[in-house]
Amino acid sequence: MSDVLTFTDTRVLRAIQLVWQEAAVLDAKDYVAWESMYTDDAMYVIPIDPDTDDFASSLNMVYDDKRMRSLRVQRMMQGYAPSAVAAARTVRIVSRFTVEEVDDDAVILRSAQILNAFKRDAFSTIGAEMTHRIALSDDGDKIALKVARLIDSEDAVSASGYLL
For this UniProt entry, which residues form the secretion signal (predicted)? Predict the structure, then answer.
């Protein structure tokens, strides 16, 4: 499929819009809304190995199903966890979209994300290669898979105070 046709395909545009909406929701720290953007069987993964696609058999920083996403949201909102106390202010830039697959039920997108964070008088920047599988539905599109491959995933990672 040519890039020109791909980026005028309304299914692709809906998927990109949802990825941008997710970034805005996370920057606003609206974790309840973020959690509702996922299908019940969705996975949210941050793998250590930048080349793996076998997340179930690999070591991951995050490997969240619905239950674990819910627990993560609770920690971010309760105010007592280190990640929630003085949570970082963030601005995400998501761009460089490529379309891996399109059909009437789903769109698989790859993109690049730069996340700028400010916490405790310090700035940090994290880059990631992103993969989103967006489940398309007349009842509302949702994220069925999100994989954030950090460009420094094999190095030590400190507590961030935000969701990728």
Answer: none
The CATH number of the domain where 24 resides is what? 3.10.450.50
Structural domain that includes position 91: 3-150
What is the C-alpha to C-alpha distance for residues 164 and 64, in angstroms, rounded to an integer?
A: 12
The whole-model pTM stands at 0.90
User: pLDDT by residue for the chain (164 residues), tens digit each?
Assistant: 556 568 899 999 999 999 999 999 999 999 999 999 999 999 999 999 989 999 999 999 999 999 999 998 988 887 655 554 567 899 999 999 999 999 999 999 999 999 999 988 889 899 999 999 999 999 999 999 999 999 987 776 665 667 77
Chain centroid to CA 80: 24
